Amino acid sequence: MKQLTKQEKHDQCIREIKGTLLVVAICCLWHVVTAFALNGTGFYFLGMPAWFSVSVFGTIILAIIGVVFLVKKVFVDFEYDEEVEEAVYDK
User: Fold this and answer.
1) Dist. CA 91–CA 83, nearest whole Å
2) Adjacent-strand bridge partners of 44
3) pLDDT digits (tens, 9 = 90+) for 21-56
4) CB-hemisphere CA count at 13 Å for 72?
């Protein structure tokens, strides 16, 4: 587990929030754009309209890829309540 100062913990939390919001925005954008772009084309994929298949399954795949990326590259394992515990032991 990584030892961080209070400011570093705050900065890391902000970094994780921004990364998560970016992945959510990409997934939402993919879902909406592909649904509208493929609607009315008449194509079918897996027995369903192409707009539904590509939009829903693509969003699921993007979400999984995004979570793996966040866990490997953005998230850091650290104890957020460490300072509270130290203050209790100091007394």
Assistant:
1) 13
2) 49
3) 999 999 999 999 999 999 989 999 889 999 999 999
4) 6
Residues 6+ apart with CB under 8 A from 44: 50
Return the pLDDT at 60.
97
DSSP state, residue 41: S
Contact 41, 29 (CB under 8 A): no
Q: How many CB atoms lie within 10 A of CB 26?
A: 15
Question: Over 80: is that where the pLDDT of 13 sits?
Answer: yes
Alpha-carbon distance of 90 to 58, in angstroms, equals 52
What pairs with residue 66 in β-bridges?
none
